[in-house]
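task queued by scheduler; priority normal; single chain, no ligands, no partner chains; default sampling; output format set to structure tokens
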Amino acid sequence: MVRHIVMFWLRDNSEENIRVACDRLRSLTGKIDGAISLEAEANTLRSGHSCDLCLNIVFDSWTSLNAYRTHREHRLVQGQISAVQQSSTTADFALPAPARAMPRLLGMFGPACSHERMIDSLVDAGMDGMWLSLSHRSLKESVAWIEILRAAAERAKFRPELIIAPEDPVQIPSVLKSLGATHVAVSLPDGKREQKAVRDAIGDDVKLLAIVRMLRDFENLPVILSAADGIVIMRNYLIGDDVRYQLPTLQARAAQVAGAHGKPFIIASELLASMREKPTPLAAEISDIHQAVTQGASGLLLMRETSVGKFPKLAMETLRKAAAAACPAFAGGMNPPRVPPQ
């Protein structure tokens, strides 16, 4: 990936002129092939040496950047900005590819893993944390499950990840921190005021994950990532057949956009769907996990495989082996370090 930065000084740097210039640059969003993200913002540090506004674009390759220079839409906006600018300076540099790190391995709470022995076996198999959906079970009913997870992690001497997904994004339980929640996963509302309300309800000690499951979510990833600490791609809840056929491309783009924003992403569901009923995975599922790891996924989440499947432990062991095979440092069976208990 390549970052393209342009700093502009305007002849008349009034707030209105800067706003208009930013809007013109932002009009390129979605029009340039290979542009992963585009930001145009006024400089908040107003001094004699600072620029008035800055354009920041991340491209998927040098080829895309070079094509952008002669792109019709770019030339049009370039002419508009040149008419009002005093000077500008540019910097282009390659972004390092994300390190191929072992992702966190997660399972979903459910009847199949609701007792101490199974949670212990999942932790022994490599599980780092769990997803708790409140769509069909109240938080009060789920406290016992959470305690079992915390006890298992304490015996293994690490702090588990606990991702709570409330049914209503604006009705967030106020006891998240006391329960040991590390993340809350919601479908973010569109308005900034509503997004702020979600943030305020979560608090500073719990991270916000935005659920991505519709085509418009993928299209709005830069906006979503600016409001959230990371994203969860919920593949089994994708709405519309057209989105399903585009999934490989959409997932790859989501990985690039998240990487450009320095935000983690989790791939959830359908990773080992066959293991809900059978003890062995499909070759295509192993390839799918390998691809997610090489794309830089920070977490891999099994859902129905652990919540209602017949082979939760085998599924988690398979997930660990498949993910480790994609990470040279862990291919020999060595487990990555876990977060120590607090």
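post-processing summary
- The mean pLDDT is 89.
- Residues 2-94 form a domain with the Alpha-Beta Plaits fold (CATH 3.30.70.100).
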